[in-house]
Structure formats: structure tokens, C-alpha cells
């Protein structure tokens, strides 16, 4: 019997208006599948495809990762925004340290979900490497302190600064009783 290949999925969830997207990212060849359809077939407009591919292009991972998405609710633009946020969340989980990951293992599948630690400052202080002294010196002869740059931390910083992790909280305002819409009342009649 053939041995099953171990697969690791990084999970993320995104929301926009009334759309909810559940995103799975794994190592692969750059395929994006949304509700069992390819990206080009699911989104007909270029702006929606660009919104979905944004987090992958910023991190330069578009040819290296396979993305599988289940999205429901809302319209086309809302779904594109939800997928974008979910994909950014999954990429953040992928590049975040092990202390901020929750790992679930079932048979040959490993699922990794991100979570926020109770004391982020304490964990960052504990995991931060001490700066090392570089043999070079400034013009006045003082040694220069340089902290080693972690490429994964740079990826998380890119995703965070790009704004893809921020939830767009704009929603349709609910209808109020006694009115014809959210704010539109009935027309006043003098007679």
C-alpha cells in the first residue's frame, strides 16, 4: 500500500460586508481555486482578481503556494475582499513564530491556525534575539549595534503594513421601523 504524503495547511478566515471566506494555503505550484473553480473563472473582473492576488504578490509567493478557498455570502466585490483578508491571515500564520501557531494533526494532514497570545509584548521580548555588535564603527569610533533581520518577520511586517489584515467594517445599515429604509422616511403629505 502506498504511503500517504504528509500535507500541511495554513488556515485563515476573512470577512467583508456579509461575505465569509475560509482559506487554506499549502506548498504547491501557484494554483488558486475558489469554490472548486479556478480564479479566472470565478472572478471575471480584473480588479477582483488583483484584490485576491494582492497578499501573494506582496510576499512574492504567488508561484510557490496553492490556495484553496470556500467563500459564501455577499456579492462579488465583498467576496474578493474577504478572500484577500483570509489569504493575508493565512500567510501571516505561515510566517509567524511557532508560539503564535495552533497546530492540529489528523492522520496525514497538519492544519496550522494562528492565534493571538495573551501577552504579545512578553512573548516578543522573550523571542527577540539580542543585537550583535558589528566590528565596524561610526565616524566618531563608536561600535554600531545591528539586530539580525529574520526574513519571516519581514514577511509578516510586509503583510501588516500593506493593510490586508485590517477588516473593512463597512456594512449595509439596517432598516429601522417606521421608515422606508435605513434613514428614508415616508413622504410628508400636507392634506
Give a verbal description of the structure.
- With 191 residues, the protein is α+β, with helices and mostly antiparallel strands.
- It has a domain of 125 residues: Ribosomal Protein S5, domain 2 (2-Layer Sandwich), CATH 3.30.230.10.
- 30% of the residues lie in helices and 28% in strands.
- Strands 4-3-5-2-1-7-6 form a seven-stranded mixed beta sheet.
- β6 and β7 form a beta hairpin.
- α2 runs parallel beside α3 and α3 runs antiparallel to α5.
- The radius of gyration is 23 Å and the shape is extended.
- The model has no long low-confidence stretch (mean pLDDT 85).
CATH architecture of the domain at 7-118 and 150-162: 2-Layer Sandwich
Radius of gyration: 23 Å
Q: And the CATH topology of the domain at 7-118 and 150-162?
A: Ribosomal Protein S5, domain 2
Largest sheet: 7 strands, mixed
Major β-sheet strand ordering: 4-3-5-2-1-7-6
In total, how many beta strands?
Answer: 9
Order of SSEs, N→C? EEEEHHEHEEHEEH
What is the count of helical runs?
5
Report the top-level CATH class of the domain at 7-118 and 150-162. Answer: Alpha Beta
> What structural class results from the helix and strand content?
alpha+beta
- Quaternary state of this entry equals single chain
Q: N- to C-terminal separation? A: 86 Å
Tell me, rounded to a whole number, the average pLDDT: 85
Q: Indicate the proportion of strand residues.
A: 25-35%
User: What would the principal axes of the Cα set say about the shape?
Assistant: extended
Query: Helical content, roughly?
Result: 25-40%
> Poorly predicted ranges (pLDDT <50, ≥5 residues)?
none
Amino acid at each position: 500500500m502506498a504511503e500517504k504524503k504528509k500535507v500541511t495547511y495554513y488556515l485563515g478566515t476573512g470577512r467583508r460586508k456579509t461575505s465569509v471566506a475560509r482559506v487554506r494555503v499549502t506548498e504547491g505550484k501557484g494554483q488558486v481555486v475558489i469554490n472548486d473553480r479556478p480564479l479566472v473563472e470565478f472572478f471575471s473582473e480584473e480588479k477582483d482578481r488583483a484584490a485576491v492576488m494582492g497578499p501573494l504578490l506582496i510576499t512574492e509567493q504567488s508561484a510557490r503556494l496553492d490556495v484553496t478557498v470556500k467563500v459564501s455570502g455577499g456579492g462579488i466585490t465583498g467576496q474578493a475582499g474577504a478572500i484577500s483578508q483570509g489569504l493575508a491571515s493565512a500567510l501571516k500564520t505561515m510566517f509567524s513564530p511557532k508560539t503564535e501557531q495552533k497546530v492540529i494533526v489528523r492522520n496525514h494532514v497538519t492544519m496550522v491556525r494562528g492565534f493571538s497570545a495573551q501577552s504579545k509584548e512578553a512573548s516578543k521580548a522573550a523571542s527577540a534575539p539580542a543585537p550583535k555588535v558589528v566590528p565596524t564603527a561610526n565616524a566618531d569610533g563608536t561600535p554600531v549595534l545591528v539586530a539580525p533581520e529574520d526574513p519571516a518577520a519581514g514577511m509578516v511586517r510586509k503583510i501588516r503594513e500593506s493593510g490586508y489584515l485590517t477588516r473593512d467594517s463597512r456594512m449595509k445599515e439596517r432598516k429601522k421601523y417606521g421608515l422606508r429604509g435605513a434613514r428614508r422616511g415616508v413622504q410628508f403629505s400636507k392634506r
